[in-house]
Amino acid sequence: WRNAAQVPPMSQGTLLQPEARHLGGVFSSWLQNQFQYFQIQTLDVIQMPRPPVLEMNFVGAFQPTDNAGRDIYKLGRIWELTSTRYLLGQDGYLMLLNEQFDRGRNRISIRERFQFTAKKGATGNIGQYDVTTVPSTSGPLAVFEFKGALPRAGIYTQWTSGLTNMVNHTNGTNVIYCEASLPMLVAPEFDPHTHVLITEAIPAPSGTPPKDGVTNSVSNVDIQPRSVSMKVEVAQDAVLLLNDRHSPTWHVYVDGVERPLLRANYLMRAVQLKAGDKEVVFKFEPTAKYLKVTVASMAASLALLIWWPLRAKKQTLTPPAPAAK
Question: What is the mean predicted confidence (pLDDT) over 216-222?
Answer without folding.
Answer: 97
